[in-house]
């Protein structure tokens, strides 16, 4: 799934850059909180976590209003809790994330615009320790609402809220004896602020 999304992302970037009327590329940082529940053998338990993310992102607008957004990056888990148990997050692998979004922009004036996006995200993390490899993959529905500000001809800044609902959370474990794979079931809602500094071209 990650290869498919990365391939689509590269195609989108190439095509949209050629045909777009307004292009942005830059770096971003964000913070998020997640809350929900997870099904276990004994029932359903509450889950919560917080993360900080960073990476590169871009947007290509084909008109004054419609375009495509994309981003790649990593995230670091700052805290995690399952029920009443707080997890040790110091050794959690950082997932690599790819996102593609359709964008809508409403221009208040030449400098300020409301920016709304919806799309898909995919993440993958791999951790190997003492002959055991754990691979986590996921798919999410992503939304964002923010403000785009064109500070200068070639400089812009965006900021707002990211929202995400994971729809797939797969964990695969491989050892010398073989491999197993499970889908973690439950519901989770993730929300948090972001800010991006963009080069406009």
Describe it:
With 201 residues, the chain is mainly beta. It has one domain (2-200): Porin (Beta Barrel). It contains one helix and ten strands; from the N terminus they run αββββββββββ. It has one helix at residues 2-19, and strands at residues 22-40, 43-61, 66-82, 85-86, 96-107, 112-129, 132-152, 155-175, 178-183, 186-200. It has an eight-stranded antiparallel barrel with strand order 1-2-3-5-6-7-8-10. Strand 2 and strand 3 (66-82) form a beta hairpin. The longest helix has 18 residues, at 2-19. The model has no long low-confidence stretch (mean pLDDT 90).
Structural class: mainly beta
Oligomeric grouping of the chains? single chain
Could you list the spans in which at least 5 consecutive residues all have pLDDT below 50? Answer: none
The largest sheet is: 8 strands, antiparallel, barrel
Strand content: over 45%
Count of spatially separate domains: 1
- In angstroms, what separates the terminal alpha carbons? 31 Å
CATH third-tier fold name: Porin
* Share of helix, binned: under 10%
Strands of the largest sheet, in order across it?
A: 1-2-3-5-6-7-8-10
Quickly give the CATH architecture: Beta Barrel
Compute the number of helices. 1
């Amino acid at each position: 799934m990650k290869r498919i999304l990365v391939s689509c992302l590269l195609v989108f970037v190439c095509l949209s850059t050629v045909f777009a009327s307004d292009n942005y590329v830059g770096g971003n940082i964000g913070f998020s909180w997640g809350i929900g529940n997870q099904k276990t053998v004994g029932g359903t338990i509450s889950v919560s976590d917080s993360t900080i993310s960073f990476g590169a992102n871009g947007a290509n607008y084909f008109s004054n209003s419609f375009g495509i957004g994309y981003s790649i990056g990593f995230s670091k888990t700052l805290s995690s809790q399952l029920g009443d148990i707080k997890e040790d997050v110091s050794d959690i692998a950082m997932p690599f994330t790819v996102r593609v979004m359709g964008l809508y922009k409403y221009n208040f004036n030449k400098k300020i615009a409301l920016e709304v996006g919806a799309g898909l995200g995919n993440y993958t993390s791999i951790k190997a320790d003492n002959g055991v490899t754990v691979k986590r993959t996921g798919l999410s529905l992503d939304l964002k609402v923010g403000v785009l500000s064109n500070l200068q001809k070639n400089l812009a800044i965006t900021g707002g809220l990211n929202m995400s609902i994971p729809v797939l959370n797969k964990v695969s474990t491989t050892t010398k004896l073989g491999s197993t794979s499970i889908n973690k079931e439950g519901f989770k809602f993730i929300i948090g602020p972001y800010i991006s500094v963009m080069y406009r071209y």
